[in-house]
Amino acid sequence: MLKEYGEELFSFELDPDVRPPDYFLSAWGPVAELRAALNSPRRARLLPTGLALNLINLRWEICTLLLVDDDVWWRKQAAAMKVNWE
């Protein structure tokens, strides 16, 4: 979910040559800030909402809701967003 957050809302691209493969958790600023917010009470929460079956590839996908409680944090994130084609 964190990788998708960085890719889809901030247009980051995963570099397959970089090790370790989870480098984006600290290298992508907005993703690192989201991790910190999710670990802090009353800033942001990630809530599961259901499961969906992708009928094209028959893979299950976990549906989630990002609920942001911290207005200041959200305004900072929203100002930096640059959504990709997805």
List keywords for this structure.
86 residues; alpha+beta
Structure description:
The chain is of the alpha+beta class and 86 residues long. The protein has one domain (2-80). The protein is built from four helices and two strands; from the N terminus they run αααββα. The chain has a two-stranded antiparallel ribbon with strand order 1-2. Helix 1 (2-10) packs across helix 3. The mean pLDDT is 90.
Summarize the SSE layout with pairings:
Layout: H1 2-10, H2 24-27, H3 29-38, E1 44-54, E2 59-68, H4 71-80
Antiparallel strand pairs: 1-2
Helix pairs in contact: 1-3
Q: CA-to-CA gap between the ends?
A: 14 Å
Q: Average pLDDT, to the nearest integer?
A: 90
Shape: globular
Biggest pleated sheet: 2 strands, antiparallel
Strand order of the largest sheet: 1-2
Radius of gyration: 14 Å
Count of the separate structural domains: 1
Q: What portion of residues belong to β-strands? A: 15-25%
Number of helices: 4
The topology string of helices and strands comes to HHHEEH
Tally of DSSP β-strands: 2
